[in-house]
Amino acid sequence: MTLKEVVNNVAEMPASKNAVVDIKNLSLTFQTADGPVYALSEVDLTIEEGDFVSFIGPSGCGKTTLLRVIADLERATDGHISINGVSPEAAREQRAYGYVFQAPALLPWRSIERNVTLPLEIMELSKEERVKRAQEALKLVELNGFEKKFPWQLSGGMQQRASIARALSFDADLLLMDEPFGALDEIVRDHLNEQLLKLWARTNKTVAFVTHSIPEAVYLSSKIVVMSPRPGRIIDVIETNFPKDRTLDIRETPEFLEIAHRVREGLRAGHSNDE
Amino acid sequence: MKLDRFCLVAAIAALLALIFPLSGVDSDTGKQVAFVGDIPGLAIAMALCVIAGAAFTWLGVKSVKAGVVILAIAVFGCWQATRVLYEYGVAGYAGLGFWLFIISLWAFVWRGIDVIANFRSLEPTKQHVANITVPIAFGVWLLFLWEVLVSGFGVPQVLLPPPSMIGERFVNSTDILAADFYQTFVKAVLSGYVMGCGSAFIVAIAVDRVPFLKRGLLPLGNMVSALPIIGVAPIMVMWFGFDWQSKAAVIVIMTFFPMLVNTVTGLNAAGKLEKDLMATYASGYWSTLFRLRLPAAMPFVFNALKINSTLALIGAIVAEFFGTPIVGMGFRISTEVGRMNIDMVWAEIALAALAGTAFYGAVAYIERKATSWHPSFRVRRH
Ligand SMILES: Nc1ncnc2c1ncn2[C@@H]1O[C@H](COP(=O)(O)OP(=O)(O)OP(=O)(O)O)[C@@H](O)[C@H]1O
Ligand SMILES: [Mg+2]
Question: So what's the architecture of B171-372 in CATH?
Answer without folding.
Answer: Orthogonal Bundle (1.10)
